[in-house]
Amino acid sequence: MSDHAVTAPPQACAACAGRAQLLAELAGRLEHRRRDRERLSALLSLPDDALARALALPGAPPLCAKPPAGAALCRHHPRYPDRLGELASPPAVLHLGGTVTRVLAALSAPCVAIVGPRSPSDYGREVARAVAMGLAASGVCVVSGMAMGIDAIVHEAALAAGGPTIAVLPGGVDVAYPAGKRALHARLRVHGAIVSELPAGTAPRRWTFVARNRIIAALASVTVVIEARERSGTLITAGFAGDLGREVAAVPGPVTASRSDGTNALIRDGAQLVRDARDVLDLLYGVGTEHREGSPSPSPPLLAPALAALLGHVRSGRDTPEALVQNGRSLETVLAGLTELELLGRVRRGLSGRYLAVPGH
After folding, report:
1. Closest CA to 172 of 104, 71, 103
2. Is 23 a member of any domain?
3. Considering only 62-71, 100-109, 150-159, 260-269, which range has the smallest mean pLDDT?
4. What is the chain's percent helix, strand, coil content, to nearest 5?
5. Quick check: is 108 in a domain?
6. Under DSSP, is residue 307 helix (H, G, I), strand (E, B) or coil?
């Protein structure tokens, strides 16, 4: 992408804006193709008239006479992300939500996608928060889909760290989805970035979630999966990343937990194992790189209050899971927290099963 200054909000050309409008109008006809990643990509790569014929739309495809309201980058704009151009079906238009300069800066930054389930475990939540905060503190843009669960957690963590983050939405950039994340949507418009290939006002459909996943994967150099069942929709994003030849990474989970079947299988099949933000930065810039594109090496990620308290108890001598089960904490929660502290390098488990705090952390 060009680095020249933008003096006015970018606009899409009429042809590209027409393509975006065509997708919105064909949304219902695309619905039944939503589960097939390859077929959906093939359909989205068709020219307007061929797409209309494939979906049995009578007459010529509609075209917008003028660009849509709001800032937008079309494929002909010099600031359109080169990374999206590697898709077989690159979005004709990338509608921008938020402060334009902030959105363009986020799109220009090194990007890592972090995706996961809508109902993660406590372990998944803590890992997601720590990885996102560490990346954002290093100037890496955290990309996700603003969904409940892991997506929302990583956006909030990146905002808390003061770093860039992009939410790729399944509807228009003005449509807060899910509705329960309206507050996060509002914060992202001010302090982060929102993008979508669909025009303002477009409501999400089931197929648009699959379509937006390809944009998440394409914007990122590395896609990190945190908890996924064997047939999780989260794996669709990893599939798109693999199709693009991008780095796919996963956080390991207990082999007895079904919610980790997908992530553990990714690692078995060659995905990179991720324990913390440093592992992701090594994938992004190379192992041992100290000056990552001008950004300082990250400090150890800040611990969530519950994890900090757990680490304090370990340091005070409560060094077995059983000794840590108190104050309303269940054994499952304690074990998840200790696993997260191990992944972060804050504690280690001895042969006797007791946990020791790692010196210097």
Report:
1. 71
2. no
3. 62-71
4. 45, 10, 45
5. no
6. helix
Is 268 a domain residue?
A: no
Instruction: Give the β-pairing of 247-251 and 222-226.
Output: parallel
DSSP state of 199: P
Task: Kindly give the pairing relationship between strand 93-97 and strand 72-74.
Answer: antiparallel
Q: What is the pLDDT of residues 244-260, one digit of tens each?
A: 999 999 999 988 888 99
Q: Cα(323)–Cα(284) distance, rounded to whole angstroms?
A: 39
- Unique residue bearing structure tokens 């899910």: 178
Q: Where are the beta strands (DSSP E) in the chain?
A: 72-74, 93-97, 111-115, 141-144, 165-168, 193-196, 222-226, 247-251, 272-273, 347-349, 355-357
Q: What is the pLDDT of residue 33?
A: 55
Structural domain tally of the chain?
1
Q: Which domain holds residue 337?
A: 305-357
| CB-based burial, 20-30: b 16+ in 10 Å, e otherwise | bbbbbebbebb
Report how far residue 305's alpha carbon sits from residue 18's, in angstroms, rounded to the nearest whole number: 49
Other CB atoms within 10 Å distance of the CB of residue 299: 11
For residue 318, what is the domain's CATH number?
1.10.10.10
Q: What DSSP assignment string belongs to 310-361?
A: HHHHHHTT--SHHHH--TT--HHHHHHHHHHHHHTTSEEE-TTS-EEEPTT-
Residue 278 in domain: no
107 has pLDDT over 60: yes
- 3-state DSSP assignment of residue 116: coil
> Which residue, 93, 103, 90, is CA-closest to 72?
93
The reply to whether omega before 178 is within 30° of 0 (cis) is yes
Can you name the residues that pair with 355 across neighbouring β-strands?
A: 349
Q: What angle do helix axes 206-219 and 234-243 make, rounded to 10 degrees?
A: 50
pLDDT, one tens digit per residue, over 291-330 is 444 444 444 556 677 788 888 888 887 777 888 887 667 7
pLDDT in tens, 141-175: 999 999 999 999 999 999 999 999 999 999 999 99
